[in-house]
Design brief:
By secondary structure, the chain is an alpha+beta fold. 42% of the residues lie in helices and 24% in strands. The chain starts with a helix and ends with a strand.
């Protein structure tokens, strides 16, 4: 009986070692896949549809942190899929006067989120910046 018990325990131990080895391999493979996916996401930056080519000092755009050469990826509800012309942005700005807008821009290869609140100020317009469409 003692010998049977020892043999059985040895089989259980070997099976546990195999199970843990397989689990470790699977975990390493999963980690590699997650890393590869993260790398592919950073390379596939969202497509910009417009660019900021002027920001007036002291304007709402300047205060929110918008900078010249920021490429606009999302402007409120406007994105690369539904952008036709600058009138789309003007409409969003007029409907959002006094309310914060979520603006996503590409700045030196990185995605940056800016909270922009269109409002009346000393200068002209509600933003105080100039936006031009990107030709792609």
């Amino acid at each position: 009986l003692q010998n049977d018990h020892k043999a059985l325990m040895k089989q259980v131990e070997e099976a546990l070692h195999q199970l843990h080895a397989r689990e470790k391999e699977k975990h390493a493979k999963d980690e590699a896949e997650v890393l590869a996916e993260a790398m592919s996401q950073t390379q596939s930056l969202p497509q910009a549809f417009a660019k900021v080519n002027a920001v007036t000092p002291g304007s709402p755009a300047n205060i929110s942190g918008l900078q010249v050469d920021d490429e606009i990826v999302e402007f409120g509800s406007v994105n690369v899929n539904n952008f036709q012309n600058l009138q789309n942005i003007a409409t969003v700005v007029q409907h959002s006067e006094g309310r914060p807008l979520s603006v996503t821009v590409l700045r030196s290869g990185k995605k940056v989120h800016v909270g922009l609140t269109p409002k009346r100020w000393a200068g002209k317009g509600l933003l105080g910046c100039n936006i031009i469409p990107l030709q792609r």
